[in-house]
């Protein structure tokens, strides 16, 4: 429940209380005793105030505009004065005093949002009635005290309860909003992780199936073919780790990473670079490096990796001693042209990308 | 003749001088002098050596391009032997008129071939130099035919002329003559230096290139 809805519900409850009070309790008292015209004017004023507030509540407006609140408060206080001064002799705080308690309820109804103002205005109302009672000087002081204390303390109690409910609703709403935000954050994080995992899965290529096969015992590391798959996977992983590094020449950085893995396997690799670094998009880099990484993974003995950048082209090539043609990259290249061939025991694989 | 080839090595590292001497000696090339500055190529036995093997970094920060220029202008045949493989430095040396540029990452084989070719007044294009030429995108670069470019690139990529010949389905000598033509085209651009002029003149005499190619 929102703040607004709680305030509206409380104000509705007050409207019901005030209507019940005014018709059920006050009207018989007013009608049953000899009151003058001012009392009826006061009653009409209060009814008008009730109509204004009930109108607000009926259209779902919980909050009274401060100007409206001030106007109707003035009307209520006027009614209070009219009713108190219009009472017959010795009637203050007695059975004929229809207005004292009702005005208190009206003040609660109108000034619900401003508890300090309610207390202040209620105090003014009580003071005025007490002063009028003292001025007349003919009433029962004990009875008056009981009426003031019981009526006012009950009304103040209700006010406190209403304020507590409102405060709790506000805290609950804040907590709910915080929970909602936390849920959103959590969902976002989950989505990001999922994206990252999907991205890696897309790039992991041969790694996941190989790990699954090893785990299932479908293949063993003693197998030559499996070792070949492992070395392909190792180069792919190393390249993937290098892909997001912040370096001035990412393509050369990825090539160096693949060369590093091959060298650890005992392949003697020479790397030659020519031309100046150009901007190469990540997808193109993947495609440029992939054939060379595949070839290096199966290379034995010596290999020569070269990176050539001319005015309109980037060419990554590897010439290596290899027992067989390297396995084809799992993904067909889109942006680059790949050519692989074998000549007198040397495997040559080249990927070319036109920059223009 | 191979027996007549003599060389002088200018390098500030004794171990490099000793290594080069050993490589050349094992191929029958006599090292007549060696030292850590270019003076050794101007005085004493070094002044008569047929080939100068020059390191570009002789202790100083700047590459020894003035020394190279002086040697070339005097008609000496110079093979630059350097640890640097930056394309612009390589191309600058070619522009000045060095007959070859061998990086120290490239082994004995390329250095010996470069010295032998230089002794005959010919250029030699090792793979790193081929890469620099293939990657050259300067405005002054000579126009190479698609075949020449392909030979350069394949040679740079494979380091094996046999492999290039097989790949492009041409003979080994055709691979060599393509590389030679490329070097001559390079030699013909920019300011003329005696060795460059001689290289071009010789290529025309041999029918390797025509005047139209220049």
From TrEMBL, chain A:
Q: Does the keyword Iron apply?
A: no
Q: Which UniProt keywords apply?
A: Membrane, Transmembrane, Transmembrane helix
Q: Where are the transmembrane segments?
A: 12-31, 37-59, 66-87, 93-112, 117-135, 141-162
Keyword Methyltransferase among UniProt keywords:
no
Tell me what this protein is called.
Answer: Signal transduction histidine kinase
In which organism is this protein found? Answer: Lentzea fradiae
| Organismal lineage | Bacteria, Bacillati, Actinomycetota, Actinomycetes, Pseudonocardiales
UniProtKB/TrEMBL annotation, chain B:
Query: What does the record list as GO biological process?
Result: phosphorelay signal transduction system; regulation of DNA-templated transcription
Q: Where is the HTH luxR-type domain?
A: 137-202
InterPro entries according to UniProt? CheY-like_superfamily, NreC/VraR/RcsB-like_REC, Sig_transdc_resp-reg_C-effctor, Sig_transdc_resp-reg_receiver, Tscrpt_reg_LuxR_C, WalR-like, WH-like_DNA-bd_sf
In the UniProt record, does the keyword Phosphoprotein occur? Answer: yes
Which residues belong to any copy of the Response regulatory domain? Answer: 6-119
According to the record, the signal peptide region is none
Keywords (A to Z) from UniProt? DNA-binding, Phosphoprotein
The answer to whether the entry has keyword DNA-binding is yes
Carrying 4-aspartylphosphate, the residues are 55
Identify the domain of life.
Bacteria
- GO molecular function terms attached to this record: DNA binding
Q: What is this protein called?
A: DNA-binding response regulator, NarL/FixJ family, contains REC and HTH domains
The organism's taxonomy opens as:
Bacteria, Bacillati, Actinomycetota, Actinomycetes, Pseudonocardiales
């Amino acid at each position: 429940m929102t703040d607004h809805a709680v305030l509206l519900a409380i104000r509705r409850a007050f409207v019901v209380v005030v209507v019940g009070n005014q018709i059920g309790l006050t009207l018989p008292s007013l009608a049953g005793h000899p009151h003058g015209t001012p009392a009826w004017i006061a009653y009409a004023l209060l009814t008008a105030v009730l109509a204004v507030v009930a109108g607000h509540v009926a259209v779902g407006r919980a909050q009274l505009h401060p100007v409206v609140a001030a106007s109707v408060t003035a009307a209520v206080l006027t009614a209070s004065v009219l009713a108190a001064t219009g009472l017959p002799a010795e009637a203050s705080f007695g059975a004929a005093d229809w207005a004292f308690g009702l005005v208190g309820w009206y003040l609660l109804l109108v000034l619900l949002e401003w508890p300090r103002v309610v207390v202040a205005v209620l105090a003014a109302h009580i003071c005025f009635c007490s002063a009028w009672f003292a001025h007349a000087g003919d009433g029962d002081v004990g009875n008056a005290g009981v009426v003031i204390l019981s009526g006012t303390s009950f009304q103040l109690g209700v006010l406190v309860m209403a304020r507590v409910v409102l405060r709790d609703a506000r805290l609950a709403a804040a907590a709910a909003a915080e929970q909602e935000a936390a849920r959103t954050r959590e969902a976002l994080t989950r989505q990001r992780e999922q994206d990252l995992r999907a991205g890696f899965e897309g790039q992991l290529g041969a790694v996941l199936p190989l790990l699954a096969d090893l785990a299932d015992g479908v293949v063993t590391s003693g197998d030559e073919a499996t070792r070949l798959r492992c070395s392909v996977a190792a180069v792919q992983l190393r390249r993937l780790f290098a892909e997001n590094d912040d370096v001035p020449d990412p393509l050369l950085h990825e090539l160096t990473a693949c060369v590093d893995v091959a060298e650890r396997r005992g392949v003697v690799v020479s790397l030659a670079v020519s031309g100046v670094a150009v901007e190469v998009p990540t997808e193109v880099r993947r495609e440029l490096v992939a054939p060379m990484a595949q070839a290096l993974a199966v290379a034995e003995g010596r290999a020569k990796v070269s990176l050539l950048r001319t005015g309109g082209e980037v060419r990554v090539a590897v010439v290596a001693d290899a027992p067989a043609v390297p396995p084809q990259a799992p993904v067909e290249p889109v942006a680059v042209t790949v050519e692989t061939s074998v000549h007198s025991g040397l495997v040559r694989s080249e990927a070319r990308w036109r920059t223009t | 003749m191979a027996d007549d080839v003599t060389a002088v090595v200018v390098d500030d590292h004794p171990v490099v001088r000793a290594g080069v001497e050993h490589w050349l000696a094992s191929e029958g090339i006599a090292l007549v002098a060696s030292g850590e500055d270019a003076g050794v190529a101007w005085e004493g036995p070094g002044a008569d050596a047929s080939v100068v093997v020059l390191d570009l970094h002789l202790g100083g920060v700047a590459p020894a391009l003035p020394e190279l220029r002086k040697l070339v202008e005097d008609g000496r045949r110079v093979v630059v032997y350097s640890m640097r493989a930056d394309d612009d430095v390589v191309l600058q040396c070619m522009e000045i008129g060095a007959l070859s540029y061998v990086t120290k990452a490239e082994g004995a084989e390329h250095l010996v071939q470069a010295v032998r070719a230089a002794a005959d007044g010919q250029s030699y294009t090792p793979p790193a130099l081929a890469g620099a030429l293939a990657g050259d995108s300067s405005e002054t670069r000579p126009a190479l035919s698609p075949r020449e470019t392909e030979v350069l690139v394949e040679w740079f990529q494979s380091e094996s002329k046999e492999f290039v010949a097989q790949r492009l389905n041409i003979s080994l000598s055709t691979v060599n003559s393509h590389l030679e033509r490329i070097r001559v085209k390079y030699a013909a651009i920019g300011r003329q230096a005696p060795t460059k002029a001689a290289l071009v003149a010789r290529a025309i005499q041999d029918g390797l290139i025509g005047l139209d190619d220049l």
